[in-house]
Amino acid sequence: MKNTVVLTDLRTREMQDAAVFLAEQGYEVRTVPESVCLWKEAELREWSAEFAGELAGVIHPAPPAFLSPMLETTEEEYAKARNEGPMAAWCTAKVFGGIMRAQGSGSLIFLGSIHAEKPVGRGFLFSSGCGAVQMLSREINQDYGPFGVRSFYIQRGPGEADPDLKNDLSPLYCGLEKRYPLRRLPKRGELNGLLAFLLSPAAAPLAGSDLRADGGMTMYYGERITEEQAEKLRRHTPGAEGGGIIGFK
């Protein structure tokens, strides 16, 4: 059984949670050391050589948000966003994708963010970088899919574990929990089950897909019911009085 999962970066809380969860599911979880530069292919290839033939998958999170006005961004900032964003993802795909292609199976999972579509006002570097990785995931499916490698791109919305849910530059954070059908922010660790599923062969029908793991927030386009109606629905079981299709009478 191929049971090694590589997490390329543990800076985010969701990746720290995933590391613990996947280990509890029986995977051997390994993390790329900080001394290995993700956007330098030779370094990554040397470190990853020991995993040949035993990789269940690799999870690569989105880079930190790069907030800089376009006309004020320096060459150094452009280079940093390029390296930690698309270039790191490209090297991850080439190195680990090559290993999984040779063994005939495995999953490459890239994480994005709702801010790639709804930036906080100055996040053009972050948005363009996530868009490039999204396209990369589709290309991986075309090139490596015939050899058993599954590629997925996951876009998630804000969750209760995020460090800051307030920003005056964007309406994204206004009444945030009401934009979710469940009327709550996604809880910490709720992404873990999806990641575990995508690492399994059962996820093959979804290979190459862009997944929105945002609890329906991206599809929000205005209030359908009042809070009073929502509370009434929460108290009733399906089929009881007060049920029905929300928004229809």
Summarize the structure.
With 249 residues, this protein is α/β, with parallel strands linked by helices. The protein is built from six helices and six strands, in the order E-H-E-H-E-H-E-H-E-H-E-H. The chain has one domain (4-224): Rossmann fold.
Structural class category: alpha/beta
Helix content: 25-40%
Main sheet strand line-up = 2-1-3-4-5-6
**Which word captures the global form?**
globular
- Supply the CATH superfamily name: NAD(P)-binding Rossmann-like Domain
- In the predicted model, the low-confidence regions spanning at least 5 consecutive residues are 240-249
Largest sheet: 6 strands, parallel
The CATH level-2 architecture is identified as 3-Layer(aba) Sandwich
Q: Supply the number of helical segments.
A: 6
CATH topology: Rossmann fold
The span between the termini is: 53 Å
Question: Beta fraction of the residues?
Answer: 5-15%
Number of strands: 6
Number of domains: 1
Describe this structure in words.
With 249 residues, this protein is α/β, with parallel strands linked by helices. It has one domain: 3-Layer(aba) Sandwich (Rossmann fold). The protein has six helices and six strands. Strands 2-1-3-4-5-6 form a six-stranded parallel β-sheet, sandwiched between helices. Helix 2 packs parallel to helix 3 and helix 3 packs parallel to helix 4. The longest helix is centred in the middle third of the chain and has 29 residues. The radius of gyration is 20 Å and the shape is globular. The termini are far apart. The C terminus is likely disordered.
